[in-house]
Design brief:
This protein is α/β, with parallel strands linked by helices and 305 residues long. The protein has one domain: Ribonuclease Z/Hydroxyacylglutathione hydrolase-like (Metallo-beta-lactamase, Chain A, 4-Layer Sandwich), CATH 3.60.15.10. The strands form two sheets. A seven-stranded mixed sheet has the order 6-5-4-3-2-1-14. It has a seven-stranded mixed sheet with strand order 7-8-9-10-11-12-13. A hairpin with a 5-residue loop joins β7 and β8.
Length: 305
């Protein structure tokens, strides 16, 4: 199983034209230690021929261009992209579906709640019905799904509930949904048995999430904010990290403390906000992560599992 990181950014990436946080100012001023990031996303394959995109954000076209294995051809409208696997219906994870409308043979994987949202609140499927005919495959925490042709070249997807909180655009005053809005995944190489966990957003670690992380040989987990009050201290919002659905990296019960109990070979942070000081490689925060054996994902990072 081959995995490539296509993007690591949370939200809209950076630099943002209207953002005054130190990192955005630095990259706009030409700080060589920083560079703009693409939206958080992975691409996985069991055979190096059929690739599955994990989340499709606004940068998807640029991300495909950065990785030759995803380039179209040799036939007309022929593409190695076989499907898209969605963790949720957030715009930064699903709006890129609109840019994939010429991929007529795609299978889209997600929860039933996400499927309903992409037919109503954010009606991607009705908008694209005259452009492409995609197949939908529902993911549930109770059932593993296989992608690939055989046990020698296939990946098992195990779906784990993360949150029942809908995206802001899908919220209403009377919204009392109990649907599964947000999930994380275990991707298992069926031949080797090795697993990769992908949880780009975490507001708590439930027993189910903890069990999944213990199974994994490699962890990709939420690295959005370094501190609980990161954006509050910048004057950007009055909501702290947990209010926004993210465990901070530092502090009591933060990601560093939580990851200490897992024996995975590699522990990697992804989905990193533009305000996060770990983006500066020489920062004290980045050095602290290194001391704990925690890596920071980067675009183009590849793993064989």
């Amino acid at each position: 199983m081959r995995i490539r990181v296509l993007g690591v950014a949370a939200g809209g990436g950076f630099p943002q034209w209207n953002c005054a946080c130190p990192n955005c100012r630095s990259v706009r001023d030409g700080d060589n230690a920083l560079k703009p990031m693409l939206q958080s996303s992975l691409v996985i394959s069991a055979n190096d021929n059929d690739w599955y995109l994990v989340n499709a954000g606004p940068d998807v076209s640029r991300q495909i261009e950065t990785f030759a294995a995803l380039h179209a051809g040799p036939g007309i409208r022929e593409t190695p992209l076989a499907g898209v696997i969605l963790t949720d219906a957030e715009l930064d994870h699903s709006i890129g579906l609109l840019s994939l409308r010429e991929g007529s043979q795609l299978t889209i994987y997600g929860t039933e709640t996400v499927k309903n949202c992409l037919h109503t609140s954010f009606p991607v499927f009705p908008m694209l019905k005259n452009y492409c005919s995609w197949e939908w495959q529902t993911l549930t925490p109770q059932r593993k799904v296989r992608i690939g042709e055989s046990s020698e070249s296939s990946i098992l997807i195990e779906t784990v509930l993360v949150s029942r909180k809908p995206p802001l655009y899908a919220k209403t005053a009377s919204d009392k949904t109990e649907g599964i809005w947000e999930v994380g995944f275990l991707f298992q190489n069926e031949w080797s048995g090795k697993c990769v966990a992908y949880f780009p957003t975490l507001d708590t670690i439930t027993p189910e999430i903890e069990s999944a992380l213990h199974k994994a040989d490699i962890l990709f987990v939420d690295g959005t904010f370094w501190s609980e009050d990161e954006l509050v201290s910048l004057g950007a919002t009055n909501r702290n990290a947990r209010d926004m659905g993210h465990l901070p990296i530092s502090g009591s019960s933060g990601i560093i403390e939580k990851l200490a109990s897992f024996s995975a070979e590699r522990k990697i942070l992804i989905h990193i906000n533009n305000s996060n000081p770990i983006l500066k490689k020489d920062s004290n925060e980045a050095k602290e992560l290194k001391q704990h054996g925690i890596e920071i994902a980067y675009e183009g990072m590849e793993l064989e599992v």
